[in-house]
Structures are given as structure tokens and as C-alpha cells.
Amino acid sequence: SGEGKEEDIDTLAQLGEQIKIATLCGLGQSAPNPVLTTIRYFRDEYEAHIRNKKCPAHVCTPLLTYLIDAEKCNGCTLCVRSCPTNAIIGEKKQAHFINQDLCIKCGKCFTVCNQGAIIKD
After folding, report:
1. Strands (E), 27-81
2. What is the C-alpha to C-alpha distance for residues 102 and 89, in angstroms, rounded to an integer?
3. What is the pTM of this model?
4. CB of 60 closer than 8 Å to CB of 45
5. What is the β-pairing status of strands 66-68 and 118-120?
6. 57 in any annotated domain
7. Within a domain: residue 93?
């Protein structure tokens, strides 16, 4: 959830290599391969999680922020009615706003918005 440190990536890689060397069976030797492969090919995503506290793939819920594009929001209130924490504020037929302190990042607003006004950031 974005609490890693930059040196953790290298530590993971070093541990993976040590496991490959120290393990006697083939299964153990191949166990670190998925982690080592993702570090090799997707290191920038690991770094984005750590440095920017963002998930480029938009799948790590704690690192997501839902926003409302005021240009696209028509004030239909579908999102307001779907929000279990009443985090969405706005009058009918006016652009709404998401209170980030109340948002639990459940994505219900994103799902019900038929205007494409809810953005995952």
C-alpha cells in the first residue's frame, strides 16, 4: 500500500538470487522467478508505488484516488446515491465533488457513472 522504500526493490532481487543459489531442488530454484521477472520488466511500476504512492495499473485500491471531471459531470446524482459513505457532494444538475477523507475507494461511483465523469487516478 505504498509504504515500501526504494532499497526494498534491490533487497527483493538479492533475496531472489540468494534463494536460487541456496536451494537444492528445482522447484525452490524457480520459486523467485516471478518476482525477479517483474522487477526486471516492470521496475518502473514498483518505483511508482514507492516514490509517487500511485499504481500505474490502477489496481492497488489503497493507492487509488477517485475524482470527478466537472466538465463531464451532469449532476445526475447516480454516484451520490451509490456512495456508501456519503463522500460525494453536489447539488442535482451541478458538478459533484468527492471528499477524499470520506472515500473508501470502493469504486461504486465509477461503476454507476454513465457520463464517464469519475476518473481513477
Report:
1. 66-68
2. 11
3. 0.71
4. no
5. antiparallel
6. no
7. yes
Q: How many domains is the chain built from? A: 2
pLDDT in tens, 33-83: 999 999 999 999 999 999 998 899 988 988 899 999 999 999 999 999 999
C-alpha distances (whole Å) from 121 to each of 15, 51, 55, 69, 92 are 32, 15, 8, 11, 25
Structural domain contains residue 30: yes
Instruction: Give the three cell numbers for residue 68.
Output: 470527478
Does 45 share its domain with 71?
no
Q: Is residue 59 included in any domain, yes or no?
A: no
Residues 28 and 69 in one domain: no
- Enumerate helices (H) and strands (E) in the chain, giving the number of each: 5, 4
Helix (H) or strand (E) holding 88: strand 88-89
SS3 assignment, position 3 = coil
The boundaries of the domain holding residue 79 are: 64-120
Q: Are 89 and 73 spatial neighbours (Cβ–Cβ below 8 Å)?
A: no
